[in-house]
Every structure is written in C-alpha cells, then in structure tokens.
Write a structure and sequence with these properties.
By secondary structure, the chain is an alpha/beta fold. The chain has one domain (42-182): 3 Solenoid (UDP N-Acetylglucosamine Acyltransferase, domain 1). Helices cover 16% and strands 28% of the residues. The strands form 5 sheets. It has a 7-stranded mixed β-sheet. β1 and β2 form a beta hairpin.
C-alpha cells in the first residue's frame, strides 16, 4: 500500500490516516487564523479576552487588558492581574510565556520563545520560556528573545533587543540590551486601562 506522509516527524499510515491528519491540521490552522485575523480586531476588550480564555485557553487574568490588534503564536501564555498589553504587540507562547502582575507592555513589543537552530541540517526549532516578573515596563517596539527572564520592577527601553536575563529593578536598553541604570525599588502599579472600543493607550 502507498504510504502517505504529512511531515517527516508525523508520518501518516494510509490514505484515511492522511486525510484525518490533514483535516485536523486545517482545523488547527483555521483556529489560529481566526485568532490573528478576526478576534484580535473585535472592538470589545471583554469579548476578546473571553475568546482568549475560553477558546484558546490562555491564562489571562480578568483584571488585565489585551488591547486590539495583538497577535499570538502557540498556546502556553499566562498574563497576571492589572497588566496591559498594548496594540500591535506579538506574544509567542510556543515555548511558554509568563507575564506577571502590574506589567506594562508597550505598543509593537515582540516576545519570542522559539527560533531556529542555524547549525541543524533541518533548521529545527529551538528556544525557551520567557518570564516577565511583576512591575515591569517594556518600552515601545522592544524585542524579547527566547529563554529570557526579566526581573521584578525592571524597565526595557524602547526598541531594545533583550538577549539575556535582566536583573531586578534595572533599566536596560540598546541592541543587545545592556544595563543603563537602576530603578527605585517600590510597589509599582501599572495604569490599568481597558477601553471598550479600540486599543488606544
């Protein structure tokens, strides 16, 4: 019998197994197409977060806000209380992404948890979990790379590229990001803003 193969890592055994795997792959693709092309444009923050929590199983605290036009990869995403993720950001949950409480994620922030091994002949995926502790402020258009932990109360400057762990209460900037100064150690509270329409900040 002819052997149908969906991918080298997930071989199909016969036509019907191939058909089943193809349908499942299409449905999975449709689910994430809707996430990143339809649901992210819904004007209601509450309705978007309902989809994120109930359909996609993201662990988003009801007292947090994910603004309009935020894209997601993967499923392992947790966002704590009183945290705001602003418009046009991208959060990659394939390797796991945990964002704590009172975190401000500015517009166009990109958080990546997976990349490719350029030395591997098949260019396989590799990466690691990103953890953002409480009271962090991530500036406009910052890039957080896989495996990074951003310490409590830290600040990531606009357009910084974070390639390694950031200590607590430090301010980092540049490419690659380096420590610029320190931040006062105190209890910070992010400005909790959840507009009903749109995602302006």
């Amino acid at each position: 019998m002819m052997k149908f193969v969906e991918s080298p890592s997930n071989p199909a055994n016969g036509f019907f197994d191939f058909l089943y795997k193809s349908v499942i792959s299409i449905l999975r693709g449709l689910k994430f197409y809707l996430l990143n092309h339809v649901i992210l444009h819904l004007p209601s923050n509450s309705l978007r977060n309902l989809f994120y929590r109930k359909v996609y199983k993201f662990k988003i605290n009801p007292r947090s806000a994910v603004h309009i036009n935020v894209k997601f990869f993967g499923k392992s995403i947790a966002i704590g209380k009183n945290t705001v993720v602003n418009s046009e950001s991208l959060i990659d949950g394939r390797g796991g992404c945990i964002i704590g409480e009172n975190v401000s994620v500015s517009r166009k922030t990109t958080i990546l948890t997976m990349g490719h091994d350029y030395n591997d002949k098949s260019f396989k995926l590799k990466g690691g979990m990103v953890t953002i502790m409480d009271d962090v402020w991530i500036g406009y258009d910052a890039l957080i790379l896989p495996g990074v932990t951003i310490g409590k109360g830290a600040v990531v400057a606009a357009k910084a590229v974070v390639t390694k762990d950031v200590p607590d209460y430090t301010v980092v900037g540049g490419n690659p990001a380096k420590v610029i100064t320190t931040r006062k150690e105190q209890a910070y509270e992010s400005v909790y803003y959840r507009p009903f329409f749109g995602g302006q900040s």
